[in-house]
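Input record, target 12 of the design panel.
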């Protein structure tokens, strides 16, 4: 590859990576604000913790299924169009939630005290579930685009950089919504939906105009061609565009559905997401109710766990994997899962009189949680290769967001009826189970490209 082509390739690679980072951070704008809005919805509308937990659970289940469905689509259609459409639709749902109390002139959604009737509970809950489906249109295009633009040898480092978008988006919007509620009171909860939605609509147009689906669409060689050139013309796996439909189906079958490593990764993802969502979805609530913090302080702490703990955790985990683990992301995941479980246990047991130390442990817990949160998906992408990475990550998505049956509905019920201690106990136990599951993959190879090459060769 000549110098000019290399320079152009690097430009498009970083342009794609940065656009995906900003774009997916905006997905979190119209999703993770809900955790800060929950105490306001409980206080202003009278929606119970159990009902809010049910919203989170159903949203998560639908989100996981959506990621699976859209994983198939992202492997076979324009990824920039899919990502743009999902963000616009998600923003529209948030606008609908914002204005849902205004329906009171047509339908009795508020009672005489201004609290939500079951009609409004059903409306907000249904809209939040629908938002889960549209949110599932975000990750699959990102996974597929990065696998098309970034070499497997660099994927852990660079996809971890992208994965920082989770924490950037969640951290910023949690801080913004915490500021809104602190400044204007819980009665301003609707702004927590309207402001992020407006920003997301503007950002969606940027995604559409800045992204391109493949290197060949801008006149650049595909990754396989570059690798072949660097290897002196040695044969490598053919680009997806040159693979027959029969071969593609065989790749999906062998590399995803019949690959035990993908299912181990999925189970590990289920466990780590429970710990993650306990912090992210319930953090503002248990910091105010269990640790006695003010809502603005709690919002700032959750934002800190995301922006500082989460981003550093992902970047360090990605760098550590490529530098010291020879791109074996699953090994780093094991180390991080142990750290996350231990840190969360210490947060739980630290007395409220030492909240500064509680904050340290919670930030550390996020630091370790976001290692496997990023790397389990990277491991799945490498095992399934670029040919089926979105499909593989769709399976991880189902398991990851099936975890909301625990972190959402179960934890909402436990917190309401047995207190937060019961929630923390279950979280720690699940972290230990996740550690055991992740350890099963210690000797697995770094990726599945050699296996993919054999499958493709057998079909030629």
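The sequence produced for target 12 reads:
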């Amino acid at each position: 590859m000549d110098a000019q082509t290399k320079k152009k390739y690097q430009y498009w690679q970083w342009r794609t990576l940065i656009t995906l980072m900003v774009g997916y951070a905006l997905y979190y704008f119209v999703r993770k604000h809900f955790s800060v809005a929950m105490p306001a919805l409980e206080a202003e509308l009278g929606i119970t913790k159990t009902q809010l937990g049910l919203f989170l659970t159903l949203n998560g289940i639908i989100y996981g299924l959506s990621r699976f469905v859209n994983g198939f689509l992202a492997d076979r259609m324009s990824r920039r169009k899919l990502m743009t459409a999902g963000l616009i639709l998600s923003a529209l749902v948030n606008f609908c939630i914002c204005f849902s109390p205004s329906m009171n002139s047509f339908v009795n959604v508020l009672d005489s005290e201004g609290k939500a009737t079951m009609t409004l509970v059903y409306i907000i809950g249904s809209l939040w579930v629908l938002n889960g489906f549209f949110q599932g249109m975000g990750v699959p295009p990102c996974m597929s685009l990065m696998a098309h633009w970034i070499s497997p040898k660099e994927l852990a480092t660079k996809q971890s950089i992208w994965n920082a978008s989770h924490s950037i988006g969640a951290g910023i919007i949690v801080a913004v919504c915490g500021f809104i509620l602190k400044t204007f009171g819980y009665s301003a909860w609707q702004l927590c939906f309207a402001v992020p939605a407006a920003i997301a609509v503007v950002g969606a147009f940027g995604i559409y105009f800045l992204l391109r689906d493949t290197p060949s669409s801008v006149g650049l060689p595909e990754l396989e061609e570059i690798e072949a050139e660097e290897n002196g013309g040695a044969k490598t796996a053919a680009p997806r565009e040159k693979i027959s439909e029969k071969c593609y189906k065989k790749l999906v079958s062998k590399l995803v559905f019949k690959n035990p490593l993908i299912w181990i990764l999925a189970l590990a993802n289920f466990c780590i997401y429970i710990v993650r969502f306990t912090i992210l979805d319930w953090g503002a609530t248990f910091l105010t109710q269990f640790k006695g913090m003010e809502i603005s302080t709690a919002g700032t702490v959750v934002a800190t766990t995301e922006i500082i703990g989460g981003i550093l955790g992902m970047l360090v985990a990605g760098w550590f994997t490529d530098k010291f683990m020879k791109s074996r992301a699953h090994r780093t995941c094991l180390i991080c899962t142990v750290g996350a479980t231990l840190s969360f246990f210490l947060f739980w047991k630290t007395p409220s009189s030492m909240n500064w130390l509680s904050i340290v442990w919670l930030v550390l817990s996020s630091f370790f949680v976001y290692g496997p949160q990023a790397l389990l998906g990277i491991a799945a992408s490498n095992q399934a290769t670029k040919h089926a990475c979105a499909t593989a990550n769709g399976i991880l998505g189902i398991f990851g967001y099936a975890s909301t049956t625990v972190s959402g509905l179960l934890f909402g019920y436990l917190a309401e009826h047995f207190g937060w201690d019961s929630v923390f106990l279950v979280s720690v136990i699940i972290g230990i189970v996740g550690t055991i599951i992740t350890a099963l993959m210690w000797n697995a190879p770094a990726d599945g490209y050699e296996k993919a090459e054999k499958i493709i060769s057998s079909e030629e």
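Residues 3 and 63 are 43 Å apart (CA to CA).
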